[in-house]
Amino acid sequence: MAKKSYSVTIAGGGSTFTPGIALMLLEEHDRFPVDRVVFYDNNAERQEIVAKACEIYFKENAPDLDFSYTTDPEKAFTGVDFVLAHIRVGLYAMRELDEKIPLKHGVLGQETCGAGGIAYGMRSIGGVFEILDYMEKYSPNAWMLNYSNPAAIVAEACRLLRPNSRIINICDMPIDLMDKMAHMCGIKDRRELQYSYFGLNHFGWFTEIYDKEGNDLMPEIKRHMAKNGYMDGFETAGDKAQHIDESWVHTFGKAKDVYAVDPETIPNTYLKYYLFPDYVVETSNPDYTRANEVMDGREKKVFGACREIIEKGTAKGSDFEADAHATYIVDLACALAENTLERFLLIVPNDGAISNFDPTAMVEVPCIVGKNGYEKICQGQIPQFQKGMMEQQVSVEKLVVQAWAEGSYQKLWQALTLSATIPSAKIAKDVLDDLIEANKGFWPELS
Ligand code: NAD
Ligand code: G6P
Ligand code: MN
């Protein structure tokens, strides 16, 4: 059957990831034909810079593509097959506060983990729902592939409050880790790896890795992890690759210590925030956090390249590059559109996939994806150590969503208190009171 052409809306048109993803869509045109792309953002000024540059690029490289950009939801979400969503409610200015406010109280500040992740979650739920509601109003059969963070909290909010929505929440961290593990084993394409994995988003473990002939790669990967963490998996992808800034490189190295805590499994890098929070605080600069690194790095680079294209009126010789790392998004869209039945790690209701864990938890497990959605692959029983950690963390995530839905100060205080990154209820309260102040206008009123 001939492939139809798809209409795609990118929500968060002004994101630093938008040009890379838009160009990647063009590159993957043969297997995922896209004839219409719309950028949507609620910040016209920010989006316009990215969109005008992309418009010039498309005119030169894909003249048949029907491209537009808008802040009007009706225009953005009518006649759409897929919505790719990567919004950041509050922009980097609020990310900076999420990172710096907890540090002032001696606890770590991170985009998606601990107090910072909780603060971002309280902002993000409403933004993602807004887009989901527009999609459902104007294109009820469309799928939303969401990677707006904090994905764990957003996914739990969807489970509780939008249970029938056609939204799939996904994260690219395990993809990068699989790239690195493939590289450690001399395998070029991570898609050749067969894996088992369980956990929550930014909170999980690989338990099995095989090559395409079914040979066990765990012994070799474990040898590398014990020696150098993920560092042996680094490819020299130049400055185009994601996760190459100094702080990320540290994180990949620190995975050695994270691995040592349970050498039976291969950990997600984000576990460092829960297992070594004291180390993270000690090695953080309270005046210059990851948000500053991103604003001085990725944001300047992407927006600089866009401005240059606009000024010159051509994208020839520009810094624009497809985000090769993001092809997993096309893999997922293809699976839904073409029933490829490929395996993806998705954030989905547990419902027995991890047999000794809360059935109502949103877990990250491998799934087979096809035209009718996903089927989970059972991961069976998980060990006591991980189960204990996950029970604590999933309770944090559930309490945040309940706090958001009910406007409950008490529940948000409990969420912060329960986070493994925060040592006491007192510190949790102090951090919370500062976060409430900083997030006026973004969070629901709490009482
Ligand atoms: P960014 O600030 O550059 O871009 C986000 C854009 O979203 C901005 O242009 C902003 O105006 C827009 N936006 C905010 N609220 C909106 C709303 N309600 N409606 C429409 N647009 C809205 O941020 P970035 O660093 O490029 O990251 C974008 C998002 O992608 C973040 O949430 C980030 O955490 C996420 N991300 C997730 C993964 C993953 O693995 N899940 C990977 C990379 C990035
Ligand atoms: C990883 C995570 C994402 C996160 C991204 C960017 O890919 O999976 O959830 O948003 O890193 O982080 P950065 O600090 O570069 O903005
Ligand atoms: Mn992620």
UniProtKB/TrEMBL annotation:
Record text on cofactor binding: Binds 1 NAD(+) per subunit.
Source species: Muricaecibacterium torontonense
Record-annotated active site: 172 (proton donor), 270 (proton acceptor)
Protein name (record): 6-phospho-alpha-glucosidase
Sequence similarity: Belongs to the glycosyl hydrolase 4 family.
Domain spans labelled Glycosyl hydrolase family 4 C-terminal: 197-420
Gene Ontology MF terms: hydrolase activity, hydrolyzing O-glycosyl compounds; metal ion binding; oxidoreductase activity, acting on the CH-OH group of donors, NAD or NADP as acceptor
Site (Increases basicity of active site Tyr): 111
PROSITE patterns reported for this sequence: GLYCOSYL_HYDROL_F4 (PS01324)
InterPro entries for the chain: GlycHydrolase_4_CS, Glyco_hydro_4, Glyco_hydro_4_C, Lactate_DH/Glyco_Ohase_4_C, NAD(P)-bd_dom_sf
SUPFAM superfamilies with a match to the protein in the record: LDH C-terminal domain-like (SSF56327), NAD(P)-binding Rossmann-fold domains (SSF51735)
Amino-acid positions noted as binding Mn(2+) in the UniProt annotation, renumbered to this chain: 171, 202
Pfam families with a match to the protein in the record: Glyco_hydro_4, Glyco_hydro_4C
Gene3D superfamilies named in the record: Lactate dehydrogenase/glycoside hydrolase, family 4, C-terminal (3.90.110.10), NAD(P)-binding Rossmann-like Domain (3.40.50.720)
Biological classification of the source: Bacteria, Bacillati, Actinomycetota, Coriobacteriia, Coriobacteriales
Key word Hydrolase present: yes
Cofactor: NAD(+)
Residues annotated for substrate binding in this entry: 95, 149, 290
Assigned keywords, A-Z: Cobalt, Glycosidase, Hydrolase, Iron, Manganese, Metal-binding, NAD, Nickel
Gene Ontology biological process terms, A to Z: carbohydrate metabolic process
